[in-house]
């Protein structure tokens, strides 16, 4: 919600990301990250952002405008904490998804290796005078040849990826 509000208010003011970034003394990529929900401004930057966009901080955070209370900074801080927790959860979910994709790929590589072992290259004994068998046998041999050379590298890379994405306990 914060990211959408920043983008909507910036556009309603007719400002580009670059212009807003210059006014806030940050780089354009920072504004882009805020608008894409990849990060959130800290509480002091949120106040400066609200000032530049001529809007209360509550509106930026998606709350209806109410009377100012003395503990506004605490409220803002709590809301930012919730947003940061949501971003952290989203990041954790992405890492888990990548880990499961890598585990699935390793499993697929093992299954295909086992299938090639079970086949024992039986197509090499086929009668290649028959054109259809020659084409199929050549394709099978080519697939096995390429797979046996590249699968160990892919397996090693996936295994390293799994180890990297595993959370240290």
From TrEMBL:
CDD domains: HTH_XRE. The chain crosses the membrane at residues 100-126, 146-166. GO terms for molecular function: DNA binding. It comes from the Bacteria. It holds the Pfam family HTH_3. Residues 6-60 form the HTH cro/C1-type domain. InterPro entries: Cro/C1-type_HTH, Lambda_DNA-bd_dom_sf. Keywords: DNA-binding, Membrane, Transmembrane, Transmembrane helix. The keyword Plastid does not apply. This is HTH cro/C1-type domain-containing protein.
